Amino acid sequence: MAPGDVIVKGLDLVFEDGKTVSYDLTGDLSELYDNRAEVKRGITYKIVLRFQVVAELVQGLRLFCDFKRKGIRVDKIPSSIRSYVKGDHEYQSETYEMPRGFLAKGPYTMEFRFKNQEETFLEWEIPFDLE
Which GO terms describe its molecular function (predicted)? Predict the structure, then answer.
């Protein structure tokens, strides 16, 4: 594997109420903090990841997501995606649920890592507020 074998283009959080929050991952990742979403407690959602495979084949792709509140991990989502051949691809996760209850209200960060066994292709953070 060589750097650049996978280019991560974007990520969407698709909520059960029809709302979608989209993030462009091709530019300056520090700008993701300017797009702080407000999310309902207990709502279900799916993660949609858009990426391009530049190499002929990339094996064993995985997406990791850690939910953090005040720097402490409160949940994690590991996803084995699979192997992909050259081209544009989209991965849609299973359905997950945001934290619920009165104490869950407040600021969170989702920390993502997209990797395989050999290298990490991209790491990024998305802040949001549970209301």
Answer: Rho GDP-dissociation inhibitor activity
